[in-house]
Structure formats: structure tokens, C-alpha cells
Amino acid sequence: MKRLSYRKIALLAAIVLLSAIVAMPFVLMLLSSFKTMAEIQSPVFRILPNSFSFNNYIEAMNQGNWSRYFTNSLVITLITVSLGLITMSMAGYAFARLNFKGRDLLFFFSLIGLMIPEQVILVPVFIKIKQFPLFGGNDLWGTGGVGMLNSYLGLIIPQIAHPFGVFLFRQFFLQFPKALDEAAKIDGCSRLRALLRIYVPASLPVFATVALLKSIGSWNQYTWPLVITNDNSMRTVQLALSIFKTEYSVQWNYILPATTLIALPVLLLFFLLQKYYVRGIVTSGVKG
Amino acid sequence: MRYFRNKSVFTDRSGYLFILPFYALFVYFLLIPIGEVIYYSFTDFNLFSERKLVGFHNFNLLLEDQVFLKAMRNTGVYFLFTLIPTMALGLLAAVLLNTTLFRTSWARALVFMPHIVSMVSVSMVWMWLYDPTYGLFNRVLSSLGFDTMHWLIDPKTAMPSVIVMSIWKGIGYNMIIFLAGLQGIPKDYYEAAEVDGASKIKQFLHITVPLLAPATFFLFVTGVINSFNVFEQINVMTSGGPVNSTTTMVHQIYLRAFTEFKMGYASAQSVTLLCGVVLITILNYRFGGSRKKYGED
């Protein structure tokens, strides 16, 4: 009995140490976000700030157009996630529950997309957006204008659907009994009605999972907005962090509070809906 | 036989309509671009003048591009020194947190936090930790009486600094996947081994490791793809410098395509990257495939 409790203490100590090391940068970021520049630069390092005043936060948010940056990120995330849920749940439903010629072939073919990194096709997708016909001054052949560069459409459309979400929906919809479709068919329920009235209400967990994964991914994305926007008014929060960093100086007293504010929404979502998030990535990793 | 005939009564063409929005986006923004990037790599496309085919000209230039060759080496170094430590530490964390002696959900959430926060944010925080005068690391070094280091500014330590940050960010994800794998191993295997007198280390090597093979394989394959595409932390923390010591393949693609608008040349770089990723993925399935089956039995 005694041996067990020693082991227990050693294990607990190891776990506390591990969590402390991993969490350390965030704790320091949060505490130092309240420090003045003088405190950050002081030769004596103190963990706690002299006072917990929100001056840094207010000043940081007054540099540049932060209400615009937050609006941009929020609008892009909300629209991307809504359209993503609609298109990917429809496809997942069809791949799981409807019989049509070539269904499984089409599904497995789309999984190629899981292997193709976004970075490899950055150039052609950029050109597709720039040369999108009839947008941004373009003619029918996509020349003459800027297409969807520097626009919400260009930021959103290529990011809506990904085979990964379809895969998660399909896995979930496969679990329902076959009799359900037959009963719906006999009652004269159309396929769309069956999806909306029977499957969607019974599938909130998978919707929560995909919505959460996609929201966090969309809020956090950097490369795509970096490539297709150069207008200050179209910046997302992730791009806007760089306004505090010039070649000669870095305003740590503004970067730390701004970083904290940007990380807060995703951390809140994660801690509130942890169960769904973990289920999503585990389904992909272990069963996939 | 009747079962199959029955099934065909329910054949449903509306399925094509249901998959259409997703499939259209998938084909237009993922599939066609793969063909296009290959086509562009054989042209002198630069956004400003008519593009024309130039054969293997871009690829010949690549072989003499010292910066790109350096970027390939850097990407390889990043891949080698990030992937294995991240997986090892993720496994260690998973084994520690798999205990049933007390609740560990708080620790799991903490270890997982770096995965949730954006790469840009954590890069900013780590730049501050690495700051030569105000950063935590140099403050600790100097208070212990060591010489301070120039972390991200010194070509010798810049890449290792980026790698340490990337390992820290990746542990949580690896931990969660390994943890799910560990929880799928039936408890009786360990009980039987205990009865036979196998030590904890033997149990780990002969039960845990082989049965975790599917999770390990998945993490390795996705880890390879992710490390070949390292870009965000590079662009934020070092912009590839000092003296190209941290520039990577995707960083080079970004610079050539979006600061110099050499779309054809950047496409040739992308195709080189794609070939690397596909080659390594095929090798993984070739040599990792049998182990995967062993784990699934």
C-alpha cells in the first residue's frame, strides 16, 4: 500500500511538472501582458506585474484598426463555418446513406485531398482567385482586374469545404440503422426532408465537432490571408499582430496583450467544448 | 440475391445533387490546382506578360539556386529534429496521463493548449522568450552565471530555436492521439502479463508499443507532411534569416511567388515539394503498412 502511494506521488509530480513546462509560456504571456514597457525591459525580472491595469490592452487596441481586424476574422470564420457545415454534411449524408453509382469511388477519390498540403497549391489557387471571371473588374476570361483578391469572397470560398469534414460526417451518419431510411421512404419523406428532420436533429455531436474544428482553424489561419490580402482594411487578427513589429523595434507591451486577446476566443471555445474537439481529432487519427 | 435487388429499389440519383456543392469546390480548388501547378512549372508565368512553355528550364535553374538548395537542407533538418522528439514526448505525456489513480483532465487540457492557439500567436510569445535582452531564456542563463545566447539572431542557433518551439506546440496533439490509442488496449493484456511476471518495461515494449502502431503510423505520416510544409513560424519568427539559415521550401515558394511574382519558378519549387511529400508518403505505406496491420489484429 505504501509503495503504491509513493508511486502515486511521483506520478503526480511528473504530471504537474509536464503541465507546468508546457503552460509556462502562456502564463508568462498573460501576466506580462499587464506590464508596462519599463517593467518588461527592467533588468530585474519579476513574474507578477506591478499592477493589473488594462492600459496596455486599451493602447494596443488603439494602434491600427483593431475593431476592423476582429470584425474581419469573425465574419470570415462565421461564414466559412456555416457554408462548410451545409456543404460537408450534405455530402457526408449522401456518401453514407444514399445509393448511387460510383458513390464509394467518388468518396475515396476525394480523400486524396487529405494528402495534398495547402502550401503546394498556393500558387494556382491564388491565380484562380485573381482571375475569377466577372469579379473585381475581370472579364469573362478572368483578365483585366484583380478578381477576388482583397475581398471576403476570396478569403472564404477556397476554405469552405475540405474532405476531412465530409469524412467525419460520413462516419457519424453510417451509425444509423438502415430501417430508418426505409421508414422515411415509406412515409413519403424526400431525401432532403429525411436529412433535415431525422438526421440533423440526431447528429448534434458531429455538427459541434466539425464546427469547432473549422472555427478554430479558420480563426487561426495565416498563410492564405497573408497571400491574398494586402489592404490594411482586409487584414485578419493573425496578420494584424505584425503591426507591432518593425525591423528595428518590437513593442512587447502591445504584442503580449494583443496575442492574449486573439487567443482568448479559441481557448474559451476549446475549454467549453473540449469533448467534441477531442472526439473529432481522435476519430481521424485512430479510426481513420 | 433478393437483398441486393431490394437495395436497388432505393437507388437514389439525388445523391449526386447532395455531393455537388462539396465536390465542385473540391475539384475546383484542390484537384484542378494540382494539375495547374504542374503545368505552370513548365512555363515562365509571371502575372505580367504572356506565359509560354519553357520545358525544364525552371527545374534546371532550381538545381543551381543555392538558396533553394539551402532551403531543402533546412527543411530536412527541421523534419528530422522535430518529428521524432515531438512523437516521443507526446507518447511520454500520454503514458503519464493515462493513469486512473487520479483525475488528469486538467493536465490534458493544459498540455493540449499550444495546439489550439494559432502558430502566429505562439511564435510571437516565443520570440519574446528568445529576446536577447528582455527574454526569459537569457535572463535565466545570466542569473545562473552562463553566457547569454543570440537565439534567433545567430545563424547557428536560429533553426534549433524554431525547432524547440515547434516541438512544444506539437506535443499536445501527439499526446491526444496516443492517449486514444492507449485507451483502446484491453486491460486484461496487462493483467495477464502481470500474472506471468513481466516487468513494467517489458509490458510497455511488448504490449503497448506494438498495439500503438496504428496511432504511431498515423502521427508519422501526418507529421512528415506537416514538417515538409513548415512556413508560418519561419515567416513570423525569422523571415528565413539570418543569412538564410532558417529559410524552408514553402518560405522560398512564398517569396518567389508573392514578392517577386515568379509564378512559373515558384510552381517548379511547389512540384519539387509535392514530389518529396508523395515519395515519402508512398515509402511510409510500403514499409509501415505491415506494422499497421499487426496493430489492428
TrEMBL record, chain A:
UniProt GO BP: transmembrane transport
State the family named in the UniProt similarity comment for this chain: Belongs to the binding-protein-dependent transport system permease family.
**What are the subcellular locations of this protein?**
Cell membrane
Source organism: Cohnella phaseoli
Q: Name one GO cellular component term.
A: plasma membrane
Annotated transmembrane regions: 69-93, 105-129, 149-173, 194-216, 254-273
Q: Topology relative to the membrane, per the entry? A: Multi-pass membrane protein
Q: Cite the entry's keywords alphabetically.
A: Cell membrane, Membrane, Sugar transport, Transmembrane, Transmembrane helix, Transport
What's the protein called, per UniProt? Multiple sugar transport system permease protein
Q: Does the keyword Membrane apply?
A: yes
Pinpoint the ABC transmembrane type-1 domain residues: 70-273
Protease is among the record's keywords: no
User: Which Pfam families does this entry report, sorted A to Z?
Assistant: BPD_transp_1 (PF00528)
In which broad location class does this protein mainly occur, judging by the first location in its UniProt entry? membrane
Check the record and name the InterPro entries matching this protein.
MetI-like, MetI-like_sf
Show which residues constitute the signal peptide: none
